[in-house]
Amino acid sequence: MPDPDPPDHVPPSLPEVPVPSRTSRRAFLVSAAAVVVAAAGPLAAVAQAAAKTPKVLVIGLDGALLSRIEDADAPNLDALRAAGLTAPSSIYAAPLAPTLSGPGWSTILTGVWPDKHNVKDNAFTGARFTQYPDFLTRAETAKPALNTYAVASWNPLTDTVFSAKVDTRVSTPAAEYDTGTTSRAVAQLSGGDPDAVFVQLDNIDHAGHSYGAASQQYLDAIHTADAQVGQMVAAIKSRGTYANESWLVMVTADHGHTDAGGHGGSTLQERQTFLIATGPAVAAGSVRHDVKMPDVAASALAHLGIALDPAWGLDGRPLQQPVADDFDTLRGRLRTRTDETGIPAALLGYTHTPPAGWSVDDSAMGTGGVTEWRGWSFTTDEFWTQAQRDQNRECNVRARDVFAVADGDEWSDKSFSGAFDSTLVSPAYPVTGGRTATLTYTTFYRQDGTQKGEVLVSYDGAAPVSVRAYTADVPSRTETVALQVPSGATTARIRFRYTGGNNWYWVIDGVKITQP
Questions:
Q1: Is there a contact between 456 and 467 (Cβ–Cβ < 8 Å)?
Q2: Which among 38, 86, 356, 428 is least buried, having the fewest CB atoms inside 10 angstroms?
Q3: How confident is the model over 102-120, as pLDDT tens digits?
Q4: Are 360 and 423 in contact (CB under 8 A)?
Q5: Spatial contact of 113 and 397, defined as CB atoms under 8 Å apart
Q6: CATH 3.40.50.720 for the 50-308 domain, yes or no
């Protein structure tokens, strides 16, 4: 497809680095079991690290694809992955924002999605950085004594995104490009006393624009960036005070690239990103699917001992503090496509089997239709968005890992009879009667025709009562519903009923009930 993001990160020339041919090392992750850090693990690791001075290094590899890092000669990134966490993830597409560097880096650095920071292009038009500042600015505001440093090959980051509160902002001269960015970062990490550092390397993106992600030149650029990452990590370990420091190192990317070259569109390859992280509370060789782009900023702040104020409105959450979610337990049960043809045949991505304690009532559900979406289904972004692109499914950014979806639009793409009428039923949550409880869940709802989404609650098995209804579009967001628990009640069960036909869809994730 045409590249809507022409190469705005242009160096004087692309360094050519000869790389010996080698077979794919995708088996690196295949051999690692999917690990979620046990509840006691993070607490023990954080307690041990508390006696040391916390430090953060965030390295941005512009336009890097994790799948191509696996193919490249990248021993330093491989070593970081073996020592810590690898978290593949995906981002948005238009109309939320195109897959460009401006929105991507703004999301990573501020910890909020584009509907909050409002960056939709590489000119940062309409940016809300005063309301949603970068993580280094938040660190300086909370702890002014911290030494913060940012250096970038793509100058708009240090010129525009990072505020003047950051102690040092360096826009590398174009003639020096990533070589100059790396040398400055290494000097700061080895000889200075930084507490939080951000470094952006640009050449992988340039190679993607010039030669495409499927090219040897793209692999060569990854190899060069890998060596530069290695220099930074070595600089940290060479510090005389290293033994008394606790470093959280995170490597990430703002977007992916097509095989032919370019980004800005809605293909899954353009929407790909990742996080590689090492540090306290990060299990060696672990893989997680619940980590998203805004988590970088939240994780950095948490590691620096800065409490995340709910008033900040962050979308990110610290990777050091995993949040249990019932739907995510289904990842091992996901299966390949049945009726869908646009989804890769080998991709595991859906099931109709609910997690323990949950059920789906399809007693009023129509027959036929596309099997994957007959009634409530449990799926992933990678699977669901490829069922049909450019119908806003890519904007379901606040659901994580496995989520529940009722998709009447896709269901009706094959011969069917009757209506779409399916109810997702939660476990019976314990509650205390006579007190207010709070129902929280992530939702994303797109309305069409006579379609309706309804949330109902039943106490101790009594008749369900409607507490919220959806008959108009609702963007991806977290909902909170106050529940007035009747006196004497001990349990509450939630029902999510979706009715319609050839209409749109409803996403639910992260369901919980809390009570003070």
A1: yes
A2: 356
A3: 999 999 999 999 999 999 9
A4: yes
A5: yes
A6: no
Widest CA span in the chain? 73
Classify strands 168-171 and 148-152 as parallel, antiparallel or unpaired: parallel
Sign of the Cα pseudo-torsion (102, 105, 108, 111, in order): negative
The per-residue pLDDT for range 114-158, each reduced to its tens digit, is: 999 999 999 999 999 999 999 999 999 999 999 999 999 999 999
Q: How far apart are CA 333 and CA 352, in angstroms?
A: 10
CB 178 within 8 A of CB 151: no
| Residue extents of the structural domains in the chain | 50-308, 326-514
Other CB atoms within a 10 A radius of the CB of residue 24 amount to: 11
Cβ 4 vs Cβ 264: under 8 Å: yes
Q: Which residues pair with 483 in a beta bridge?
A: 437
Instruction: Give the count of alpha carbons within 13 A of 57, CB side only.
Output: 30
CA distance 360 to 376: 7
3-state DSSP assignment of residue 126: coil
Instruction: Tell whether domain 326-514 is in CATH 2.60.120.260.
Output: yes
Which tokens sit at 474? 């609702």
Indicate the range of 13-27, 107-121, 123-137, 370-384 predicted with least confidence. 13-27
